[in-house]
Design goal:
With 256 residues, the protein is an alpha/beta fold. Helices cover 40% and strands 14% of the residues. Helix 4 runs parallel beside helix 5. Strands 3-2-1-4-5-6-7-8 form an eight-stranded mixed beta sheet, sandwiched between helices. The protein has seven helices and eight strands; from the N terminus they run βαβαβαβαβαβαββα. Helix 1 links the parallel strand 1 and strand 2. The two termini are 28 Å apart.
């Protein structure tokens, strides 16, 4: 039995991942961005051991969430599932940071840096990472023309870079990125071909299986198979540049 923390687990793939792991007997801690969403998560996954609340669009709340998760842990597995899709116009959070980048990239970076190291880390990416751009000089679209879809694809590429960087820097931790597919959910919409159970399958497998294929590290997977990510994902120089940018924005460096 493993102790697992799943961010963004009040609905969609995150909730299905948490519920599946809880049904299998694992100790699962949920996460929601607000008290209202936390109640929804508790009702949906009553066998979870608890729900932590924190809005990932706030650096202060993300730090507080990390502190609460540290107290609730330690966790054998952390699944960074929380994320947002796209917005028609560029929007900044109260921290003055572009919203998609802060929630999808800075938040998992900050939680990774502040939480005690688990045995396994899973970062939810997307097939859109293949269309991501390496624009480290303008991560927040301050100069580039705004494209909500491009911002999302960039963020999902950054999640792969983060997973690979952690795998390289922390060899004792199994760290991977997952493309869950196009899933029928609030984010994916009703036209998506896959169910939330399909989307949760690989994250659950990576979190809980001892099969040889599930205990690899530094991989980008979909359908329980390693796939080829964006050509820049495995470049240590690009990984380190992203880590440096995240450290500068958060004031927190990823521990060696």
């Amino acid at each position: 039995m493993a102790s697992v923390f799943v961010t963004g687990s009040s609905d969609g793939i995150g909730r299905e991942t948490a519920a599946t792991l809880a049904r299998a007997g694992h100790r699962v801690t949920l996460h929601a961005r607000s008290a209202h969403r936390a109640e929804q998560a508790r009702e949906a996954v009553p066998s979870a051991v608890g729900v932590l609340v924190g809005d990932l669009a706030s650096l202060a709340e993300t730090r507080a969430l990390a502190a609460a998760a540290t107290e609730a842990g330690p966790f054998d597995v952390v699944i960074h599932n929380a994320g947002v899709y796209t917005f028609p116009e560029r929007a900044e959070t109260r921290d003055g940071l572009e919203r998609v980048f802060q929630i999808n990239v800075l938040a998992p970076y900050l939680l990774t840096a502040l939480l005690p190291r688990p045995r396994r880390l899973v970062y939810l990416s997307s097939g859109g990472q293949a269309s991501g751009e390496i624009a480290l000089e303008d991560l927040q679209f301050r100069r580039r023309p705004w494209s909500g879809l491009q911002a999302y694809c960039d963020s999902k590429l950054h999640d792969v870079l983060l997973a690979f960087a952690v795998a390289r820097r922390w060899p004792e931790v199994i760290s991977n990125a997952v493309d869950p597919g196009w899933v029928r959910s609030r984010m994916g919409g009703s036209a998506a071909p896959d169910s939330v159970a399909d989307g949760a399958d690989t994250p659950v497998w990576l979190a809980s299986s001892d099969e040889q294929a599930a205990v690899v590290s530094g991989r980008y997977l979909s359908g329980r198979r390693a796939r080829t990510p964006h050509h820049a994902a495995a470049d240590p120089a690009v990984q380190d540049a992203l880590l440096a940018a995240c450290a500068a924005l958060t004031g927190v460096e990823l521990p060696s």
